[in-house]
Amino acid sequence: MSTTGQPTAVLRDELRAAIHALFARYPTRRAVTLPALHLIQEKLGYVPLAAVVELAELLELAPAEVQDTLSFYGFFKQDKPLGQVRVWVCRSLSCAARGGEELLEYLCEKLGIRPGQTTPDGRVTLEVAECLGLCGGAPAMLAGPTVYTHLSRETIDQFVQSLQDGNPPGATQVDRDPAKQRPDSGN
Ligand code: FES
């Protein structure tokens, strides 16, 4: 809540300006929905319901229309912010046949979380993916923009070590208000 008693906008000026800048690149405001959702998630680490309402207003849509687009894709987080690095481990056939599930379990143990959860320090959100399109290099993992093929315990150890060293691959800088958006492990 602001000092004037008005609710504080979730989409701050810079983010609103970035969304407005998309208008010229798309034929309609409705067509901006998906790229704007990506921008919001990139900036805030998630897309809370309040952001959906504010985005709908910008796009001159009903909040339910924006929410429909958001919920169609499994990509967007709505309940709490993502970790700095979003990690996807493939669990589809080629990867599973080459030990992917065991490696996922190993990574879960090392991070102390299950798929869908974020580490208590907010560094990593772990997800499972259906085929990352890297079957030739199975088992495969994506950490931020970094691709890991022929995944092994050793590469997982190196990845976790890079986190502990504070040098994670592809960490995303998110604009979080720690008072409002504290990630936690209680998923
Ligand atoms: S099955 Fe894992 S990348 Fe295709």
Structure description:
- This protein has 187 residues and is α+β, with helices and mostly antiparallel strands.
- It has helices spanning 13-23, 33-44, 49-59, 63-72, 93-97, 100-111, 153-164, and strands at 85-90, 124-129, 141-143, 146-148.
- 39% of the residues lie in helices and 10% in strands.
- The chain has a 4-stranded mixed beta sheet, covered by helices on one side.
- It has 7 helices and 4 strands; from the N terminus they run H-H-H-H-E-H-H-E-E-E-H.
- Strand 3 and strand 4 (146-148) form a beta hairpin.
- Helix 6 runs parallel beside helix 7 (153-164).
- It is elongated.
Radius of gyration from the CA trace?
18 Å
Number of helices: 7
The side-by-side strand order for the widest beta sheet comes to 2-1-3-4
List segments where confidence is low: pLDDT < 50 over at least 5 consecutive residues.
176-187
Instruction: Classify the secondary structure makeup into a structural class.
Output: alpha+beta
Q: What would the average pLDDT be, to the nearest integer? A: 88
List bound small molecules: FE2/S2 (inorganic) cluster
What's the N-to-C terminus distance?
26 Å
What proportion strand? 5-15%
Approximately how much helix is present in the residues?
25-40%
Global geometry: elongated
How many strand elements?
4
The oligomeric state of the chains shown is single chain
Give the SSE string: HHHHEHHEEEH
Largest sheet: 4 strands, mixed
